[in-house]
Structures are given as structure tokens and as C-alpha cells.
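ok so i was messing around last nite and threw this chain in just to see what happens. nothing serious, just curious
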Amino acid sequence: MNAASTTSETFHFTSAGVRCAATHVAPAGATGASEGPGGRRALRPVVVLAHGLAGTQDAGMMPFAEGFAAAGLHAVTFDYRGFGASEGSPRQSVSLAGQIADLHAVIEAAKRRDGVDPEQVVLWGISLGGGHVVSVAAERDDVAAVISAVPLVDGLAAAALAAREHTPAQLLASTGRGVLSAVRRRAGRGPAMIPVVARPGEVGALTQPGALEDYLAIAGPTWRNEVAADVVMELGTRAPAKAAHSLRVPWLVQVADFDRSAPPHAAMKAAGAGRAEVRHYPGGHFDLFAGKPCHERALAHAVLFLRRHLDVPAPVEPGEPAEVREVAEVAEGSGPAGATGPEQVGYATR
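result:
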């Protein structure tokens, strides 16, 4: 991607009285000075990006945001309350209801950004955020499209997968820390903490083989490898799949077939309820992030999906990612046969 093809600006918004940090990544020339005929600037869709468990803007979000902006869309990333550059306490504590509220708040802020078409709001989420965007889109009437990448949509299904991946002793240790954290909260003390990612056999929220190395590879300066231990209990209540049938907008679900954190079968079941378009990738939970095998294709498929369903003006300046052009050419029949690689696309039905 041509770095000169996008611009970025940090800003803040308020969620439940708490000041939260966000970043607006825009196509170069799409804000400020006019670009359209007669001196009128063309408004563009905005993609609001929601991260996963304990994720921060500087932990893998920028390559997606910059990719969307280079393709002609606005993109907004943000930090949930208590994480990254956002304010709020307790720190590093996941509240599903709080994160849903934060997503609602940043959508309102994104709609007010310069050059944004408030009638073309796209919600993009990855992992835990991939479920959040489903829940929020089902509650709003101003969302034009939804993209869920390796989404966690069913907490109980994730717990069942974890039970197969870990020993009873490991599960007992993790649950014990979660109960201790909940007790400390009720007593007015700070929550007990565990690592977000750890090696197999260690205590942590994510301990699958390779998870530690994969998360550290995308971690930025504000990311911390700790989270309140009661997250293991909080995630058990997660069920955005139940809202999937309420979606009335185009929905793309991107599934990593070897995902050992967010169960692929649960994502497919939710996709069926929401009549989603589904893309399959031959990788694991972190393989859609930049630097991993499936990133460029996943980004290109997301852009192509949005171009089919929204009014996306061409980039103001050249710099569209080559992988976006390649996938578009194949979709239109002008690219080389088989150029889309081993990913599969389909449409889920009830």
C-alpha cells in the first residue's frame, strides 16, 4: 500500500462519561479541501473497526484501517474503556455491556467526522469484536453493512472448545482465578489479573499453541498482556449469535477453518441465521492479521464485499492495495484463473 494514499488523525469521544481514544484514517484528499465537481466533496462510507479480547488500536488494527482507506473508505479505530489510550477504570477489565456501549458511542462520533457519509456506516469486528458488531447492528437502523472476521459469537461454544483444548487442572485454575476476581470486585477491591495470552499449560485467557507469539507480534506500545480474570466468566454469557437472525443488512463472515479460539462451527451457524456471505481461509485465529498468510486476501475480500453493496467512490489519490485490485479482477472475470487461492466463498442459508 502507498503510505501517501491515506491520512490519519487522532480524536476522542465520550462513552458513559468516559473519554475514549480513537483514530480517523481517511483516503488522502477526502477530508478538508473539496474533491467533487463544482467544489463539492464526495461523502464516503466509514468503517468502524472493533477489536477483540483486550485489543487496542495499536495491536493489529492499523493495517486494516489503512487498507480500507487506501481503497477509498474512511476508517475509524478506537480503544474500549479501560484499555489502551482510553480512560476508565478498572484498567484491563472486560465488560461486554460496556464494550457494546463504547461501540455505539464511537459510531455516533464516526458519523460526525469530516467527509463521512452518515448513511453508510459499516461495522467491522474481529474475534470478540466480530460478535460485538452483530449485536450492535441488530440494535440500530443506521448500519449499512457488517463484517465479522474470525468472530466469537457463542461463549458457550467457545467454552466447550476450550474444554477440549485444555486439561481439567488448567480449566480449574482458570475458573478459580475468575471466581477470585469476581469476589474481589464484590468486596470493592481490584480484580485479580491473568495474562491475555500465555503458553500452553500456563494460566491465561488464550493459551492455544502459538497464541502468545501471534498476539505479541501485533502488539503495540499501549497493549498490555493482562486482563481481569473474571473475563472467563464474562465470555460465557456471550451470545451475539442470537441477534444474527435480526440483521437486515449485508453481512460478511470470514472464517478461519483451523481456529482454536473462536469456534468456526458457531460462526457458520450464526451466518446461516443472518443469511451472510461466508469466506473461508486455511488458517488459525490470528492468521487474518497483517504479516500472516490470510491477511491480504481477507482485506481484499472485505473491500470487494463493500463495493458490491455500498457507494464507494474511487480513491482520491492512487494507492489502492494491489491485492484489492487482483481480487476484483478475478471476481469480474479478468484475472487469472485460480488467482483467489484456496479460500472459499458461499452464502449461508437457514
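not much to say yet. The CA atoms of residues 136 and 279 lie 22 Å apart.
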